[in-house]
Write a structure and sequence with these properties.
Length: 367
C-alpha cells in the first residue's frame, strides 16, 4: 500500500466502499485487515461487512456477515496503524471473489492508505449501504483503499507464498477482473496439484516499486517487514525486484537516484537475509527483458544481466526462477518474445504472465 489522496476526490465522508478481492486458499473462517498506515488523521470505519461477491457490486446475502472489532461494530484506526477484525464464520471456496464493504462517516480524509492499482473493479456508493444486496448509484474504482488483506483460516499444514515485487508482480497491463497476473497463474497451478494444494499465494507487488528508493510507496527494504514478515503463515518468498531501480538510474533522458548493480545485489541480499531470519525460503526471480522500454539503455541492460547472473548463482538464495529465460525472444534474448509482450516492452501481456506462472517449478514448494 501507499499514501494517496482519496481516489481523486471520489471518496468523501458518508460513503460506502465495496471492495472485491480474489482469494487463493479457501476456508471456513475469515478476518479482514484494514490499514491507516499512511494516513494523516485517525480513520473511523463506521460499519463493516463481508460477503461472497455475486458479480459487479452485488453480494450474496445468504453469505453476509457484519464485521466487528473487539466486539464493536465500528473502529477508529490511529495514523500509522492497522487493525484486524474479529474472525467470522464464512465458508469460502478456493478462488472465491469476496466483497468487503466499509462505511466511512464524515471525517477528515486528507490521505488514505491505498493499493493504487488493483486490476480489479470495486465500487463506492453514497451513505451507509454496507449490507445492501446491490449498490445503487455505484461508481467504479480500480484500487483498494484501506483494505490491506484477508486472512482465511485453513488447515494446520497450510502456508503462504509471498510474491514480492513491482508492477510486473502487481499485474500491470493484464486484463482487469480476469486474475491473469503471474501470481494468479501460480495459485491455480498449486491448487491443482495435491502436493501443493495447501499453499496460498499473497501478491505483494506495487507498481513502480524499487529496492533502494521510495517511489510508489516505500522501497522494498522499507516495506519488507509489513508486507512479508508480518503476513500470516509465510513459508516461501519469490523476490522479483529492481528493474525500476535500473531503469531510472540509467534512464537515457533523465537519470536519477543512480545506483549500481552491486548496490542492488546488496539490497536483494539484505531482503533474503531478513527472510531467512524468520525461517522463510527465498527464491530469486530473474528480471524479465526490458530493451525497448522507455527507460531502457545499454548500461541498464548490462546492470540487468549482472543482477540476473547473481540471482542464478547466489548462495544467499535458496534457488531461482528464470522468468528472463521463459519470456525472452530466443532470437534476441534482450527483448520479450512477441507472445509475451504487452506492447510497452516492459510489462507482459496476459499470455506473458501465463508463461511466467507456468515457468515456476512447483517442486520448489515441496522442499
Amino acid at each position: 500500500m501507499a499514501a494517496s489522496n482519496p481516489e481523486g476526490k471520489l471518496l468523501a465522508g458518508d460513503t460506502t466502499l465495496r471492495e472485491i478481492v480474489h482469494i487463493s486458499l479457501g476456508g471456513p473462517v475469515v478476518r479482514v485487515v484494514l490499514s491507516n498506515e499512511f494516513g494523516l488523521d485517525p480513520l473511523t470505519i463506521g460499519q463493516a461487512h463481508i460477503a461472497l461477491s455475486a458479480g459487479h457490486s452485488d453480494i450474496a446475502l445468504t453469505s453476509a456477515n457484519a464485521l466487528s472489532f473487539g466486539g464493536r461494530p465500528s473502529v477508529t484506526i490511529p495514523p500509522g496503524a492497522l487493525v484486524v477484525s474479529d474472525p467470522v464464520d464464512l465458508k469460502l471456496p478456493a478462488f472465491a471473489d469476496v466483497a468487503v464493504s466499509l462505511y466511512l462517516p464524515e471525517q477528515p480524509l486528507r490521505q488514505l492508505s491505498v493499493h493504487g492499482f488493483a486490476d480489479q473493479t470495486s465500487y463506492t456508493a453514497p451513505g451507509n449501504v454496507v449490507s445492501a444486496a446491490k449498490l445503487d448509484s455505484a461508481k467504479e474504482i480500480y484500487s483498494w483503499p484501506i483494505l490491506k488483506g484477508l486472512d482465511v483460516k485453513t488447515t494446520d499444514n497450510s502456508a503462504a507464498i509471498v510474491a514480492f515485487g513491482d508492477s510486473i508482480t502487481d499485474g500491470a497491463h493484464s486484463t482487469r477482473d480476469a486474475n491473469a497476473r503471474w501470481p494468479d497463474v501460480l495459485a491455480r497451478r498449486l491448487q491443482a496439484d495435491k502436493k501443493t494444494a495447501h499453499l496460498g499465494v499473497l501478491n505483494q507487488g506495487i507498481g513502480g516499486n524499487r529496492v533502494l528508493h521510495d517511489t510508489t510507496g516505500p522501497s522494498a527494504l522499507a516495506r519488507f517487514d509489513r508486507d512479508v514478515l508480518a503476513q500470516a503463515g509465510v513459508k516461501y518468498l519469490i523476490l522479483l525486484e529492481s528493474i525500476n531501480d535500473i531503469g531510472h538510474a540509467q534512464d537515457p533522458v533523465k537519470p536519477y537516484d543512480v545506483v549500481t548493480a552491486e548496490d542492488l545485489i546488496v539490497g536483494l541480499g539484505q531482503l533474503a537475509a531478513r527472510a531467512h531470519t524468520h525461517g522463510i525460503k527465498v527464491y530469486g526471480a530473474t528480471l524479465t527483458p526490458y530493451v525497448g522500454a522507455k527507460y531502457s539503455s545499454p548500461a541498464g541492460e548490462a546492470m540487468r544481466q549482472a543482477v540476473n547472473q547473481w540471482i542464478r548463482t547466489s548462495t544467499q538464495l535458496d534457488g531461482f526462477i528464470d522468468f528472463d529465460k521463459a519470456t525472452q525472444d530466443p532470437a534476441n534474448p534482450t527483448v520479450f518474445a512477441p507472445a509475451a509482450d504487452s506492447g510497452d516492452h516492459l510489462h507482459p501481456a496476459d499470455a506473458g504472465y501465463k508463461i511466467m506462472g507456468d515457468a515456476i517449478d512447483l517442486k520448489l514448494f515441496t522442499k
